[in-house]
Amino acid sequence: MFAFGTPRWQNTWQPLPVSPSSPGRCLLDTVTGPVSPEHRDPATGLAREAIGLREVLFQSITHMAPAAAVAFSIIAGAQYAGGALPLAVLIALVGCVCVAFTIGEFARYLPSAGGMYTYSARGLHPAVGFLVAWGYAFVEPLVAPVLYLIFGIVMAGTLASEFSCSICRADQWWIWSTVAALLVFVLGYLGIQISTRAGTLLGLFEIAVFGAVSLWLIAKADHNTFKVFTTSAATAEGFSGLRGVFAGSIYTILAFIGFEAAAPLAEEARDPRRTIRRAVIYSAVGIGAFYVLTTYAATVFFGPSKMPGFAGFNNGDPWTGLAKIVWGGAWVLVFLAILNSAVANSNAGANATTRTWYAMGRIRLIPPVFTRIHPLWRSPYIAVFGQLIVGLGVALPLGFLFQPLPAFILIATMATAVIVLIYITVNLAAIRFFLTQHRDQFNPVRHLVVPLIGIAFFVPAFLTAMGIRAFSFVVRLSGPARFTGLVVGIWLLLGVLYLLYLYVRQSERVANTGRIFVDEPHGAVEAPGAT
Question: In sequence order, which ranges of 437-528 are alpha helices (DSSP H)?
């Protein structure tokens, strides 16, 4: 696709050298060529080896926002998939587990804060890596504003229905969205350890609450049936059968977005070649099973035939409504879990955003000011301020323009379209990476079949989100979401133009998307072999 020449590291890949001081261990694959002192000096870098598997795992889990995803992201697909919403979740689960496995394979060789753009640069071409970085720079900052809107909707709506006070009105959602943004800003500013440990506690609470209420709903349901895992239950008007299922899968895929968020923490994690791999795979599989359970519970309790209207139940907060029916006054636990999930997801999204900006600033794809690290908290504090500005700058204007819930759906659809394209690209990159640079490690199932399955499951959702009616099962979305193709197309076009500019003026910036900046003081990590 791109014919800009071969990057200087493309044909010089060498096996990881053995550390003489530690038999059986390997020296890290470091950058090709010198790195400026301000980027190599540990005093100016991210906090090295600050977090372990638990924190990295919950970075991915909380980025997926299990409770908020169940309560808002997944149910947005009910208007299309209807009673077959659990089937749409299964489609997303298969595709996302495949790409999680692919990311895990990459992480064994390429631990980098650049994450998926580094994988794409090494596997395909630096130009592709740049475009993935460009797309990720568009998507990841949208995660926080999406959750700010959810926090505002739930808080304002619940206060309006339960209490009477000056700020207990549904139209005061913007106050609570701002509160959420400021809370996430503080967590991000205080550094990765405090931020990720807070995420662990928040994540455990929301999973426990929604798991418990789901089991309660299944026990109380009139008819438990596996019909909801077939297209026969997709009966939404104008979206019957596979068309409704694939349209609904856009929002079930949205619920999974975030399992890859562990990758940008590679330079702050201990033993990143193992830790990142485990985190992305465990989070995708574990939370995927959680989504199947919760979506099945809601569908069989509410009624498969009534699911197209599920998102509007209880004034747009259906899970709190279900909790009131089966738990009475204990519904407040679900309410708190949703708020908790919104904050945790915003926090994880902000972490991934700021680390990606840090990595892009380091190779000057964006202004290097984003690489500035707080001397005490070791956080990329300029990037943290930037995330606050972008988060409120997206959430508040769109919320006022379209109203909060339609604004949420628009932002969510745009994010899904771009991230699905990135997932497809990473799968393609893995195939070429192991066929060429690591042919001796190539496994037909792990490095060909699994990526191809992932691609097959993602293509229909991408076409539907973008409004590209290439097949009969692709339908046009309704409401503000119909503008997704236009907005995403403009952003990608701008990325191509910027790419061409860089190749003419400073091509080394594009080549640097494939560089690995991991500095281990003791010079050794586990060899990328064992699981």
Answer: 444, 450-466, 484-505, 507-511
In whole angstroms, what separates CA 203 from the centre of its chain? 15
Supply the pLDDT for residue 196. 59
- Tokens 């904050």 correspond to 343
- Distance from C-alpha of 428 to C-alpha of 207, rounded to nearest angstrom: 33
What 3-state DSSP class applies to 380? coil
* Half-sphere CA count of 203, side-chain side, radius 13 A: 27
Q: How many helices (H) and strands (E) does the chain have?
A: 20, 2
Q: Which amino acid makes up residue 104? A: G
Output the furthest CA–CA distance in the chain (Å, rounded): 70
Q: Which residues contact 454 (CB under 8 A, 6 or more apart)?
A: 94, 95, 96, 98, 99, 102, 423, 424, 427
Asked if pLDDT for residue 193 goes beyond 70, the answer is no
- Counting Cα atoms < 13 Å in the Cβ hemisphere of 451 gives 26
Is the confidence at residue 144, as pLDDT, over 70?
yes
- Which class for 197: exposed (0-12), middle (13-18), buried (19 or more C-beta within 10 A)? middle
What whole-number distance in Å separates Cα of residue 234 and Cα of residue 225? 14
What gap in Å lies between CA 258 and CA 61, rounded to an integer?
A: 7
Task: Report yes or no: 344 and 199 within 8 Å, Cβ to Cβ.
Answer: yes
Q: How many CB atoms lie within 10 A of CB 367?
A: 12
- Tell me which residue of 342, 340, 343, 348 sits closest to 140, measured CA to CA: 348
Rg (CA), the chain: 22
Instruction: Please give the distance of CA 363 from its chain centroid, rounded to a whole number.
Output: 23
CB 473 within 8 A of CB 242: yes
For residues 72-87, give the mean pLDDT.
92
What is the rounded distance in angstroms from the CA atom of residue 21 to the CA atom of residue 373?
32
Q: How far apart are the C-alpha atoms of 474 and 281, rounded to whole Å?
A: 29
In this structure, what are the phi and psi dihedrals at residue 14, rounded to the nearest 5 degrees? -120, 155
Specify whether the CB–CB gap between 353 and 383 falls below 8 A. yes
Tell me the pTM.
Answer: 0.76
Q: Nearest to residue 145, comparing CAs of 404, 484, 422, 477? A: 404
- Residues 6 or more apart whose Cβ sits within 8 Å of residue 164: none
Instruction: Report whether 261 contacts 351 (CB < 8 A).
Output: yes
